[in-house]
Write a structure and sequence with these properties.
The chain has about 300 residues and is of the alpha+beta class. The chain has helices at about 1-10, 30-35, 55-65, 80-110, 115-130, 140-155, 160-175, 200-205, 210-225, 230, 265-275, 290-295, and strands spanning about 10-15, 20-25, 50, 70-75, 240, 245-250, 255-260. It has three domains: about 1-75, Gyrase A, domain 2 (2-Layer Sandwich), CATH 3.30.1360; about 90-185, Tyrosine recombinase, N-terminal domain (DNA polymerase, domain 1), CATH 1.10.150; about 200-295, hpI Integrase, Chain A.
Length: about 300
Amino acid sequence: MDKIKIIDLKIKVLKDREDNLMVSFPYNPQFVQKIKTIKGHRWHPGDKYWPFPGTNETLERILKVFEAEEIYIDPALQGIVSDLRKKRSGVVESELSPVLEDLRREFFSRKYSYRTIKGYLYYNRDFLRFVNKQPSEINDNDIKNYLLYLAEEKQSATSTLNHAINALKFYYGTMLKKKFVYEVRRPRKDKKLPVVLSKEEVAKILNSVDNLKHKAILMIAYSSGLRVSEVVKLKVEDIDSNRMLIHIKGSKGRKDRYTLLSQTVLETIREYLRKYRPQKWLFEGAREVDTYQQEQRTRYL
């Protein structure tokens, strides 16, 4: 009965007489790709299994790689597996809070943006959980293995990998002064051509929008090259009709800048202001406003 159960399971982790590990599973390209991320991987074509050294580190890595899959664990390994799980949930998690708190305080003292802080904290937390080590024990191989895990298992994009590298370099390089972290190479950027719409296609998109407010948003974003986050933060006074410029405040990297304002967009904005009468933000939700206040705000336009 036990043998039938083992055959039905997808992945088996067994222990041989010499205390080595044997991993086997029915052919699955994804499983093969995952197991090749484990150091020391080999394929035994005769008995159709993957042999590994019987170390706790290797066993933990195998469990991590296949954590989302159904696994049969050799009863002889159950005690070790139990200890590894306790260590993972206890020692490392208890150390995460002070580490991340120090990192968070450093970010805020340097006035990093909320989005940057959130991303950097995420990757540092995920990295420590992945390697299951204290920050003082981290070496270059740990970082390389984590980046390989992101690239191969998570299928992360180049921009994601670079974001993770930046997060790790800040903590281990800038804060802990680890020199090896600066030797980590960044992946090559994907060379993709942007999709450029023709004038006719842009005109069709804008003409298909009946709502004046939505049309103004699309026009100002396209003609001035603004991010969505920049459009929603625009105020009425940011539209400089005298110099035909738009003042972008606190953009990416907390930087201010000016961008061009076309005459066509300005006319659409003026029409939008007369109809919607926003008070503070250029694009607000619908509400009743005082006509006199609106006239004072839009006078210079």
